[in-house]
Amino acid sequence: MSLSDVKAKAAALHAQFQKAGAQPVDCAILQPAETLLDLYGEDIRTRAYVSLDPVQGEVMLRPDFTVPVVQMHMSDGAEPARYTYAGEVFRRQEEHPERASEYFQVGYEVFDREDPDAADAEVFALFTEILAPYGLRAVTGDLGILTAAVAGLDTSERRRAALMRHIWRPRRFRALLDRFSGRAEVPPTRAALLASDDPMADAGPMIGLRSEKEIRARIDALRADAAEPPLAAEQVALIDTLLKVSETCPHALEHLRDVAVDLPAIGPAVERFGRRCEALDRRGVDVTNLAFEAGHGRSSMEYYDGFVFGFLEPSHPEWPAVSSGGRYDALTRQLGRGREIPAVGGVLRPGLLVQLEAGQ
Fold first, then answer.
1. Which of 79, 148, 217, 253 is 20 to 30 A from 15, comparing alpha carbons?
2. At residue 227, does pLDDT exceed 90?
3. Model pTM above 0.70
4. Which domains does the chain have, with CATH numbers?
5. How far apart are CA 295 and CA 272, in angstroms?
């Protein structure tokens, strides 16, 4: 696979998105790090190439296009808007050394407040059409359903916030659920700390960046959490049931509506999923055979907060998604300085498509 082949495929995809009505845009390869690193989430923060510029301060090589495009749109973009871009992104790959740390990305983003469900369907249908010749497996999900479930738990705001923060880290999320429900034993070191009248009395010299005040505040927070009643087993079981939903869209919708009877907080998000299915059907997508996985998207970008999708190559399980995307309304609020707009988009990896075309 040559770089010229990848560039040619990127240009062809870029042209297809322009033909669909998107305005071509570009973003600087060197991006300011201070604001963007907080928006990307833990995964990208640990994989970004960060450096210090004597004039600009902390900067990073562009790890994706979506956040800079949202910044641009919220600063001076007209509404509605459709954008497309093509270029290199950069991510460290310590955990997957077989993957390229510099690769091309081509994307399509929609900012339109008129009918978000129709916009979801527009983006997914367009990617489905472009990728049809490659025989990829399409899978969808909806992070809005899981976040609604967490928001509806009968527990403290502190615990809900902790679970919400770790939705994109499944193992940590599970560990918190087990701890908050009393299913996991308290570690002996924490039990000893909580039982002590003054844990700082025998702490020894202060080492590290945290002050004594910060450490005492953390201990107080642990004590407050330990004093809370456990999460009800019934609510934890409903979260478990929700996360196990992995069916075709019509069956998943029926299953989730059953869950919503006992977990009414997810009702509006589930009905939005139903409206999206109808919008996808109107766009010609075969919803009857389209996969829905409630946990899909939990290891992708943390700015996704609703509909998510991916196109996977079954013969290469070691590959990342050939294409992925989703809805990121909350990101526009964060960057909009008081303004917001529903937004959804997706990206393709032209390099992987070139490999598929070459039979690799």
1. 79
2. no
3. yes
4. 1-115+341-360 (3.30.930.10), 156-231 (no CATH)
5. 17
